[in-house]
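Hey Z.,

So I finally got round to the alpha-D-galactopyranose thing we talked about over coffee. Here's the setup:
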Amino acid sequence: MFRAAALLALVVSSLYPLQAQTGIRYLPGPKAFVLDAGPVTYVFGLNQRNELQHIYWGKRLWRDADIAAARTGQNWASFDLSPTTTPDEFPAWGGGRFYETCVKVTRADGGRDIVLKYQSHEIKGDTLEVLTKDLNDDIRVKVVYRVFSEGILARHSLITNETNQPITIESAQSAAWNLPPGEGYRVTYLQGRWAGETQIVREDVHPGMKVIESRRGNTGQVNPWFALDGPDRATEESGRVWFGALGWSGNWRITVEQTPHQQVRVVGGYNPFDFSYPLKPHENLETPPFYAGYTDTGFGGASRMFHNFELANILPRSTRNKPRPVLYNSWEATTFNVNEQGQTELAKKAASLGVELFVMDDGWFGARNHDRAGLGDWYVNPKKFPNGLKGLIDAVKGTGMRFGLWVEPEMVNPDSDLYRAHPDWAMHFEGRPRTEARNQLVLNMARNDVKEHIFGVLDKLLAENDISFIKWDMNRHASEPGWPEVAPADQRKLWVQYVRNVYEIIDRLRAKHPGVEIESCSGGGGRIDLGILSRVEQVWTSDNTDALDRLKIQEGFTQAYTPKAMMAWVTDVPNFNGRSTPLEFRFLVAMQGSLGIGNNLNHWKPEDFTLATKMVSWYKDVRRTIQEGKLYRLLSPREGEWDYNQYVSEDGKQSVVFAIQRSQQYGRPAPTVLLRGLDEKATYRLKPLDNRKLVEAQQTELSGAYLMDHGLNVRLTGDYSGTAVVLERLN
Ligand code: GLA
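And the result:
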């Protein structure tokens, strides 16, 4: 009886749950570590030099006997010794390595060679720690792995100086990701600038090195994400893709290198530019996590894996299971001209639309009547708010909405009380000019006193007011990153310590005020990465709210990040770029992420209120599917006049299709589009947002097979037109 049950369990477990499981094991025969992450297996081992060498990264393997011991590559010539032909798993700069390595150090005596040898390892559940050490000195590097059932691995490293001399680290990377050697790869990455973030660039990988990076002190508008597809070329829905993203909101770098010997490797971590991190004996440096995955289901499959992973493991635990609220933000309506009466009126109008969270943006504090003064003085402006914030907050809460507030804690205007009291708190090099941007300077958040001051100010603000959301902005990048108060050799630690302290403030605030949610903003999408996303509910995607421009920004954003975190507002037209699109169109674009409204509601006509109320209510019915479902990008705005996206709920009961037409050649119908992610055998009821846009000859109950093989037809007329259709599963 028992044996039969055990046998059955064995059969069942070998048939089904394999994909969902994670596990790490060491195979003593081939001296290999096998890491199973749901549908993905990753293998590396110890070669005959007792160094870590990559073996495999791809689809789940089921047979350990397939795994052979790692064997170093051969010496090719006196010019290219074995390290140049060996896929090192975590190489340090030494022993004749001419390619990009993960660690580079200088010892007190000037010695700079470091060669890492395996020492020991420890498997703790889903985490593997492999201890390596230089062949001579006690410079230790712990290489750490964690596996997730969504097919994702996280890696980081910990470099410890156990010698009795100081050392200086010049490069500290989180991971090297080796791909199967070969030619013909392509790399995809997210290029960007202010108002033009997350733009997809796809190009061939050639011998040499491609670098994407930030030197700006925060994540920057180029995003720390990559995807590589192989010589067989992936599409949106098929083909092999290796992809990853760094969890770090400071200077980062990712290199994609193809060596002359066809080694293809992605290395990422702290940007070695202007990097120098001294370690005294027994001190250490930990690198940020580098998350990566593999799929054979194309770029769409890669992003769905990352979305699932983020929803389950990255976004803050306390709000992970709640949908994001529909918010109103006052910035574009009132800019700096905020006061209790004006904001209260906007709040009442916003509440009438069904908005759930009212956010007052810039202008409420100090002498902040324009962008030339006030940053740093985080007390309520008594002229604008004679009752403090209480009057407004009570009014907002009286409508049933929650209240949120904008802050920009890391910044200071020279025209501010804070700067007058503490000019030394701004980053600077002694005796050198301080470059201003938007009339502001960056506080040196690496300093302990600055960190404690900012924590204190925000803690007080949250303790004294019923604030349930803060929009944390950062409207310029770091220049003159000086820290004259510490020894010259330690000054470059600023790049790392700054970010650690920002993280610490957020972590402490969240612990002390558990009801507060946060949006990360940096003049739009300048601080979007998996480090900040583990601390905030959402990010401001871009200051560019033009619906047409947003299509490409949002397509890029969703390559790497879940639509749940993607804030998208409907705003007034003409937009800053002069373009006017219809209000319904703007809603259809903004509803594809977490919906916000940023219009000046005082200028709206009754029909605008009617339309917006309908759209908000419709959005609330389907937002779980949009925010937490599976996203299929059906037609790309990079490829033609249309942008179609489909979201399928986790349980498969609901699907939402957005169809957007950017412009229309006279008389040309919108394409029939094949849906995805449905059950062939199920029947779905079509519930269009607008009946007139569903092509009449089409049934309104259709099978999954028909929808995926024949497709869905909508009628779109004219430029900037669009619609949405909900599918409800009937059986
Ligand atoms: C940045 C943000 C805007 C707004 C302004 C306020 O530009 O991206 O949304 O908050 O600052 O000054």
